[in-house]
């Protein structure tokens, strides 16, 4: 068993430029430890740090090392970084893990995945017949059930019992958010539009070389990207579960053109986790990925992080961006106002969902809401199933 | 064709790139070197204008290989990437055959219609046919993900099968460079087949070196000031942070105006060369260029 505390080091290592300073580590030449063992141990450390480092990637690192000087720490650094990392989010973790393993220090690795059993709903699992609500086991009267559903659809999810919540989840499974469309260049066969040469030639061949008619193709409308930013800070706890279920339904309906991030004290991309088919598993996976459940809110900063790392590059460009938050912001709101304005410039439409808006007499008085509203195209409620249905309508028409 | 000597280490490759006028850092040189010797595609991700496309061109130049570029866009389909049948010429051929009464044997006619000479090779097929080559798949993040799945197939065995003609296989796998601006995340299955490199904006020294190399007429003083001012602009959350392309445009504009150094007034007047959106220009003007590019 390899132990990070005694990992071999080699030469001396100068950190890559541009990235965070991983410090200068000094290396003692420790012969005898097999390169393969070293790499396998490093891969384990890296996985702990939250970087995938799958076996095929590890074998790519080994073969990269076969072409480089294994005694040169910079070469080892790059052989690993080029083969084991899959995106900019991996790079910081990689640097920390690299330093930890190869310098023999046990550096503290940020453990995003170390937040188990998140309180993704203080509620029962989705087994059929959970709890009191379903009472005596007989098939419920359909009409009564339907009207109960109707009532449930309009109830504020914050005030539901576990059983009602469980039932609501089944309704969520039926929700298929439609997506906004826009014209695109992709073509499909049609009666009008550009000529489809392949089809025309095949037809002419059948007709003995005579071009009897030109076959056409036409642009097929494409879904617009939808980006959901869901506030999972303390004040949103009663709604986070429902919002993530909404997000799950949206991702399932349009896996390619939907992106979901949670915002709170930090930004976490949960799209990948929400792609799992089963909503409970998807939410559990999403919950694992979210490190800041129920923390305080730093909307402005987190929105900036989103725009810097994703939005600006294109995730927000031309998209319908939906911010789900009560707008509670600790501290000043200037940053939030500026970032919302920036978001507005990039996005096709900005939708803000505030669960409190569903309450009668609600006025958007929180500083955060005041700061955000000038940059919002649609301001909607998000406190009940009915409100979510309405929200999908707003998104698809945006 | 025998290749010019292939560099034997990342350092040698860096020197060879340098000789073409492309100045890589250690990470990029290692990435390109490994792509060359491991026959593994290089996936380059980074902001606009950091030199992703230019790297592929420099690699083609130094290896003496032809370069084929597939520019991706939304709706890109296999026929535009692989091959298409030359519809016009096929029809002419049909007509000619008909006139010569050769149309009597439909099977033969059809076979003659799907002959190699009627095939229009697109970049992927060209790169495999003209081996060894450099294949640049530019801005793959703009293509749809169905196209990604298709690319994955081609890149895994470097063969293309054409039902009417047979299978085309590259004698030597092409050196493949894929670029992405990260407008969306490219599927992990595709990235796993590649070496992944995140290309950041160059640091100050490298940017000065690039400016000096690419624009020898620009004074050292001006190159320094442009590099520093560009670095400042990159910290401002602009809609489009300037890349190397923009700092070069800026230095060129300033040089054309006869400037030997950059002052706040000149900076304000030439901002259009380095910023590509009106909103960005307005924002920077509102921040008072004197404060940003101080005297
Ligand atoms: N390291 C470098 N050495 C020399 N020239 C460079 C370097 N990096 C960038 N350049 C120059 O900067 C310009 C922009 O580079 P290029 O077009 O390759 O960027 P890109 O990353 O492909 O951008 P985009 O995402 O907009 O396509 C080119 O003229 C290129 O020659
Ligand atoms: Mg480019």
The overall strand count of chain A is: 13
Give the helix proportion of chain A (percent range). Answer: 40-55%
CATH architecture of the largest domain in chain B: 3-Layer(aba) Sandwich
User: Which architecture of the largest domain in chain A would the CATH scheme give at its second level?
Assistant: 3-Layer(aba) Sandwich
Q: How would you describe what is shown here?
A:
The complex is a heterodimer of chains A (398) and B (295). Chain A has 398 residues and is an alpha/beta fold. Helices cover 42% and strands 11% of the residues of chain A. Chain A has a six-stranded mixed sheet, sandwiched between helices. A three-stranded antiparallel sheet of chain A has the order 4-6-5. The longest helix of chain A is centred in the middle third of the chain and has 17 residues, at 237-253. Chain A is globular and about 70 Å long. The termini of chain A are far apart. The model of chain A is unreliable at 1-32 and 105-140 (pLDDT under 50). Chain B has helices at residues 10-20, 26-38, 52-63, 78-81, 87-99, 106-113, 123-129, 145-157, 188-192, 204-214, 220-233, 244-256, 264-274, 278-286, 289-292, and strands at 42-46, 67-71, 83-85, 119-121, 134-138, 159-162, 166-169, 175-180, 195-199. The termini of chain B are far apart. The relative contact order of chain B is 0.13. Classes of the chains: A alpha/beta (398), B alpha/beta (295). Chains A and B meet through helix 2, helix 3, helix 7, helix 11 and helix 12 of A and helix 2, helix 5, helix 6, helix 9 and strand 9 of B. The complex binds adenosine-5'-triphosphate (ATP) and magnesium ion.
């Amino acid at each position: 068993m390899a132990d990070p505390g005694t990992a071999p080091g080699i030469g001396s290592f100068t950190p890559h430029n541009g990235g965070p300073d991983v410090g200068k580590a000094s290396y003692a030449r420790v012969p005898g430890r097999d390169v393969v063992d070293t790499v396998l141990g490093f891969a384990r450390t890296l996985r702990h740090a939250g970087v995938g480092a799958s076996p095929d990637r590890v074998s790519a690192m080994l073969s990269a090392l076969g072409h480089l000087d294994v005694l040169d720490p910079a070469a080892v650094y790059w052989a690993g970084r080029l083969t084991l990392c899959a995106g900019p989010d991996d790079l910081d973790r990689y640097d920390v893990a690299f330093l930890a393993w190869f310098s023999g220090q046990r550096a503290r690795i940020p453990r995003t995945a170390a937040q188990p059993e998140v309180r993704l709903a203080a509620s029962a699992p989705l087994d059929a017949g959970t709890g009191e609500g379903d009472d005596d086991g007989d098939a419920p009267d359909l009409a009564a059930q339907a009207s109960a559903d109707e009532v449930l659809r309009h109830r504020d999810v914050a005030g539901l019992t576990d059983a009602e919540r469980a039932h609501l989840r089944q309704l969520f499974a039926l929700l298929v958010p439609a997506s906004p469309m826009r014209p695109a260049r992709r073509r499909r066969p049609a009666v009008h539009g550009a000529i489809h040469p392949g089809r025309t030639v095949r037809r002419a061949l059948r007709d003995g070389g005579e071009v009897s008619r030109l076959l056409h193709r036409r642009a097929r409308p494409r879904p617009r990207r939808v980006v959901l930013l869901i506030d999972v800070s303390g004040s949103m706890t009663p709604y986070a579960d429902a919002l993530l279920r909404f997000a799950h339904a949206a991702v399932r309906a349009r896996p390619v053109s939907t992106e979901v991030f949670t915002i709170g004290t930090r930004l976490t991309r949960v799209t990948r986790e929400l792609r799992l088919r089963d909503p409970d598993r998807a939410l559990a996976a999403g919950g694992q990925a979210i490190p800041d459940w129920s923390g305080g809110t730093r909307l402005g900063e987190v929105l900036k992080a989103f725009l810097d790392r994703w939005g600006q590059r294109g995730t927000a460009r031309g998209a319908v961006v939906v911010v789900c938050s009560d707008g509670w912001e600790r501290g000043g709101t200037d940053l939030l106002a500026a970032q919302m304005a920036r978001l507005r410039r990039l996005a096709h439409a900005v939708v803000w969902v505030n669960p409190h808006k569903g309450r009668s007499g609600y006025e958007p008085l929180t500083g955060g809401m005041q700061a955000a509203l000038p940059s919002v195209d649609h301001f909607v409620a998000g406190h009940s199933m009915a409100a979510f249905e309405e929200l999908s309508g707003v998104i698809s028409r945006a | 064709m025998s290749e010019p000597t292939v560099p034997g280490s990342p350092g040698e490759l860096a020197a060879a790139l340098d000789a073409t006028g492309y100045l890589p850092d250690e990470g990029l040189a290692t990435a390109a070197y490994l792509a060359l010797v491991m026959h593994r595609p290089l996936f380059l991700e980074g902001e606009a204008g950091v030199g992703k496309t230019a790297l592929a061109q420099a690699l083609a130049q130094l290896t003496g290989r032809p370069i084929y570029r597939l520019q991706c866009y939304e709706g890109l389909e296999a026929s535009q990437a692989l091959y298409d049948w030359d519809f016009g010429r096929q029809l002419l051929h049909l007509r000619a055959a008909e006139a010569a009464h050769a149309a009597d044997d439909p099977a033969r006619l059809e076979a003659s219609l799907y002959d190699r000479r009627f095939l229009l090779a697109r970049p992927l097929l060209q790169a495999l046919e003209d081996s060894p080559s450099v294949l640049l798949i530019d801005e793959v993040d703009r293509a749809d993900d169905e196209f990604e799945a298709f690319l994955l197939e081609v890149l895994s065995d470097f063969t293309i099968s054409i039902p009417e003609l047979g299978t085309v296989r590259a004698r030597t796998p092409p050196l493949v460079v894929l670029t992405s601006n990260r407008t969306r995340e490219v599927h992990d299955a595709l990235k796993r087949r590649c070496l992944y490199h995140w290309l950041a904006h160059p640091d100050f020294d490298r940017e000065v070196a690039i400016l000096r190399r690419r624009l020898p007429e620009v004074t050292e003083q001006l190159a320094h000031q442009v590099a520093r001012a560009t670095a400042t602009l990159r910290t401002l959350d602009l809609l489009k942070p300037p890349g190397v392309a923009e700092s070069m445009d800026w230095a060129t504009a300033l040089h054309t105006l006869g400037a030997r150094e950059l002052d706040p007034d000149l900076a304000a007047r030439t901002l259009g060369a380095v910023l590509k959106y009106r909103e960005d220009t307005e924002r920077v003007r509102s921040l008072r260029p004197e404060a940003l590019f101080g005297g």
